[in-house]
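Work Package 3 (structural annotation) set out to generate three-dimensional models for the target panel prioritized at the project kickoff. During this period the team completed the workflow that converts sequence records into discrete structure tokens, so that structures can be stored uniformly alongside our sequence database. As a representative example, we reproduce one entry of 247 residues exactly as it appears in the project archive.
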Amino acid sequence: MNRFDLTYPTPAENLAADEAVLDWCEAGLGDETLLFWEPRETFVVVGYANKVSTEVNVPACAAEEIPIFRRCSGGGTVVQLPGGLNYSLILRITETGPTRNISAANQFIMEKNRRAIESAFPQSEIGNRKSEISVRGHTDLCVGNVKFAGNSQRRRKEFLLFHGTLLLNCELPLISKLLRMPSLQPDYRASRPHAEFVTNLQLPAERVKTALAQEWQANQTQTNLPFAEIKKLAREKYSTDEWNLKF
């Protein structure tokens, strides 16, 4: 699998990269890839079908000049914060393999990601936080029952995009300030407010990236990506109110 560490200067470009690379692979121009990027500023990202006014505290975002974006995959709304890490897997869909449908892909990918995060902890923490890493809901990674990563999926005919955000060393109180209680939530959340539901993993980003790359055997450095299409999508789609505020 190919690996690419790619953090663009703008949120729109980082979000566009996921869709552009998925399209690139679907067109037969690329193959399975693991991308990493790290937010350099605070911004809100709603899932494809989310209604902004329902999920986001829009007045608070306006007061703090926090922009709101929309991604191409489903799932809930997140706050992207410095100190977080985003990964994107572009995987081939096979008729009888672990990516054959949404549920099978969720289970397959989340278990591999759980193992990767476990391996990222120092040996001295085996009996502490490491032993509590679990998959909750369908696509949440937790320490015990407190979430540090959410994930979502988008499928095409030949390839799928599975991507997520990991809270490593983020300013978590901003989440409560910028987001409303989600309209949909997993049972294990039990209506807990954001402050009681999320936590930082407190691991260095490089260690987490190394662990994920090793688990996915992403040991080939990718140099050829659809850079022009990323820029085009960022400009014509992910920077527009027509897309970001469509619901």
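The first helix runs from residue 11 to 26.
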